[in-house]
């Protein structure tokens, strides 16, 4: 087959080809079409035992995939995250290993199947005219006319026609009404720019609400923190709304490992290596709670945004485009950790802007 035959759209080098030799006439630098190379048989094509081994291998790989799927489901049910870092890591690891085995088994089995058992001979499909013959065209036109006639029955049935068009006309209201109703909602977006943290408010363990002393925080420890409130308030719906904005992750580092924080010159927003940052990821608002003690990195499990706690919680990886807001903290006269003020910048996704 000549180059021109391989690429019918290329008319810049059209030449004649002799049917006897397949060589180009009138173009001395052209060479004969080498054609399709001789088919080389695989071992599985000539040796039934090799084919049987390949079949067993593919089967085993698919079975491993099945076991991986079952294992991931069992891990999800039997080893749920218990709220601790180690528990979340173990659950994530087991589920991930099961899914990896499942997908890897399917992928490798499919590749091995295709390379060793499926046919690998070159196939040629002859081209033919794509035009439909007159008889098929007539049948198609007849069927279209019959369908058009059947649809005309709707025009003679008033109730059916009214119901049909009424349903089509009313359906958009199912979308439009909620949208229109939301226009009259609460659009005071300043509520989302500030949290309930205030100067002197103690940091408390979530969910018990017990205040935290600085002496109780050891190097490398991680605390999930909320503002200290009364037990009665923690039972209210308003507390759920406020807590969702005010949640904090607090970590204690060796003071020499703390390179920078977000405090302005002349101020200190940390206490003896203890730093507190918003748990709400600045990408889309997922809870950031996976802390790597060796690297001082904080990981968001949703989209893998990674923040460096030792360096102002700046982004070191992932889609988040700004650091986690820091909660300025200090200690009171009784040694309890307290907030100096609210976050100095808005928490949550970075498209939020604080109203001054």
TrEMBL record:
Q: Where is the signal peptide?
A: none
Membrane-related topology note: Multi-pass membrane protein
Q: Where in the cell is it found?
A: Cell membrane
Which keywords appear in this protein's UniProt record, sorted alphabetically?
2Fe-2S, Cell membrane, Disulfide bond, Electron transport, Iron, Iron-sulfur, Membrane, Metal-binding, Oxidoreductase, Respiratory chain, Transmembrane, Transmembrane helix, Transport
Q: Per its UniProt record, what CDD domains does this chain match?
A: Rieske
Q: What is a single cellular component term in the Gene Ontology annotation?
A: plasma membrane
Residue spans crossing the bilayer: 58-79, 91-114, 163-184
Stretches with biased composition (Basic and acidic residues): 27-46
Domain (Rieske) spans 245-338
GO molecular function, a single term? monooxygenase activity
Which cofactors are named for this entry?
A: [2Fe-2S] cluster
What this protein is reported to do is described as:
Iron-sulfur subunit of the cytochrome bc1 complex, an essential component of the respiratory electron transport chain required for ATP synthesis. The bc1 complex catalyzes the oxidation of menaquinol and the reduction of cytochrome c in the respiratory chain. The bc1 complex operates through a Q-cycle mechanism that couples electron transfer to generation of the proton gradient that drives ATP synthesis.
Q: What is this protein called?
A: Cytochrome bc1 complex Rieske iron-sulfur subunit
- Tell me which species this is from: Promicromonospora sukumoe
